[in-house]
Write the structure tokens for this entry.
Amino acid sequence: MSEFIVYSVPGSPYGRAVLATLEEKGARYRLAPVAPGTNRSEPHISRHPFGRVPVIEHDGFMLYESQAILRYLDRVLPSPALTPADPRAAGRMDQTMNICDWYLFQGVGNVIGFHRIIAPRLMGLAPDETAIAGAMPKAHAVFNELARLLGNKTYLAAETLTLADLLVAPQLDFLAETPEWAPLAKAA
């Protein structure tokens, strides 16, 4: 199988999810770094019309949107399977992946992570404490739901690792670098 090219800002949680999936699959790949702040200009905007990361290239086929990429990888690299065969477990995987995109990232990771990590480290800006405080109620709701779904299991959706775990883990790892992690993890 040919090499996969992953276009991503190094450290991006979504880019890390794609890289982790490729690692789990034992696939050949290379990271093509996208410099922070250049994703909305050429050449990246030609790869992703909305200027986001990651994007993969495989045998001349370009694909963006993290969930689409992860599902594509699971289809073209069937072993080990990262989508459960059981319809209920697959449904739980899909649900958890959507929780990640719509609730964990939107309004939580993109606010707290931006103001605690991206803005200070890459832009030299002070964190917006009001924005962070405003994100905390949603953050608690998301962490509580992920904790409920996990229960006392090892994985979020099935008895083995799934795409949901690979998508959620980098988001949590990113948030673990912030002072908000301790109260969120404790409450969950």
Summary: The radius of gyration is 17 Å. The first strand starts at residue 4 and ends at 8. The chain has two domains: 4-76, 87-187.
